[in-house]
């Protein structure tokens, strides 16, 4: 069950999150086309796509930051409490000459649930939101633009509909590209969100970047890049395929 910690909150919110993100991106393109070309169905240019993608990235931070914060902290809370118990055990054993394992306290949940987990139960800005902006704004730009380019390359001609297999491939490749390039910012974001609520290690984004680089080297910002690439392909291919088929279905009425 350790592999499924923190899953309930993202699972409950992912439908709303993806619906809002893809719906916002689609409607933003339509508004830009209507404003620039006088026709909401006019194909967007590269600059139009970039603007729509960046605005979608900003929106995703407001939706995704609380979800990511809860997920990271619920996944890490057992590790945090165990570390605190080991420190306590070490201080006690130094005076009693008892082995560490015999006095280590059992782990307890640091948070009572998802709602209490947000900000550790205290008000204020969401930790990691700034780093999430650095991840999602360029991340969504490198998500929707490669997808559009791959679709144009795989489309037989401008008037025909794209084959579902081509949509699946374009979406998967775009997802892998987006997640790999977003990995450095994702590392910083995750570290800030996992930071202990009562005894913080990082003062902010810049301090987290500098401290991580000095202690672990530049390679630390690319940890998990291969996993992100593998995870991004099936996840994104499924989302884009569902999105495009849904649009085709509703436009048929």
UniProtKB/TrEMBL annotation:
Record keyword Transmembrane present: yes
Membrane topology: Multi-pass membrane protein
Short name of any one Pfam family annotated for the protein: Mito_carr
Cellular-component GO terms for this entry: mitochondrial membrane
Keywords: Membrane, Mitochondrion, Repeat, Transmembrane, Transmembrane helix, Transport
Residue stretches of each Solcar repeat: 162-249
Family under the similarity heading: Belongs to the mitochondrial carrier (TC 2.A.29) family.
PANTHER family listed in its UniProt record: MITOCHONDRIAL BASIC AMINO ACIDS TRANSPORTER-RELATED, SOLUTE CARRIER FAMILY 25 MEMBER 48
Protein name: Solute carrier family 25 member 48
Organism (species): Dissostichus mawsoni (Antarctic cod)
